[in-house]
Amino acid sequence: MSHLNNPHDKFFKETFSRLDIAQSFIEETFPSEIRDKINLLTLTKINASFTDADLSEHLADIVYQTEYAGQQALVSLLFEHKSYPEKYPHLQLLRYMNNVWHEEQKQNKPLSVVISTVIYHGESTWKKLSMLTYFGNTHESLHPFIPQFDYLLFSLNGIEDYQIENFKSDMLGLATMLMKHSRDKMNSFLNLTPFLVNKLNALDSARQDDFIKTTFRYIEEGINLTQNKLSPIFTQVSQNVNNIAMTIADEIREETTFNHIKGLLQNGITPEIIAKSFGISVQKVEEIIKKLKTSSN
């Protein structure tokens, strides 16, 4: 599945592309010996994509540049969304880092140190190993020929809910809590109701409508929970939050219908049959056909 179509990856990218969330993430999760050397006031997102096609499913190409102990460094936020740990994460990271350095070389810039951060929310434990272990019991005289570098691991299944609840940023707390519990069964997920209500109402008060929209799209597409299933939450949030949730639900239904009709048209089903099947007018189907032709040009 392409990272563009994966709701977990999309949610991560939309979330961590926000400068304020990236700053909060560094403050809350980075080791102090690294965090204290980062000048968050200089943190800047680089609007460029370094990720190659083979890595698109595994890497979110979000790169920030910042002053680090008086020098320039790249802070890379990397999201792994599979339900199992990667066997050789260093190999993926090394290819990613090489893309960064290659781009810098093309622009005649000095090479930067890349701090890669893996955010993992799978169910099994991610066992962090050194790259040296990939090669088995090699003779120590060969060790200088093996690349050795580290990455930061933020494993959500190793973080307690109360720690996330204490995050200073409402957006960071909401995003990480949702990703951590994205595979919960319905009853377990609803245990988060007080937390979700508190954060959604806080974001509403702060007029963060765009992030509320992003949140509800992820809840419906990534966690597969509809409004009906979340009724305990909707009875306790503001009317504006309810309106946003309903708007997102309508948009998703329209997109789903559009994609279904697109597939039927591509398989030669006539507009008349499609209109009858979906209970819509032939004119509506023809409007969709027009949109498809416009988007393909």
UniProtKB/TrEMBL annotation:
Database matches in Pfam families: Transposase_31
Membrane spanning stretches: none
Entry-linked InterPro entries: Rpn/YhgA-like_nuclease (IPR051699), Transposase_31 (IPR006842)
Top-level taxonomic group: Bacteria
Domain named Transposase (putative) YhgA-like: residues: 6-204
Descriptive protein name: Rpn family recombination-promoting nuclease/putative transposase
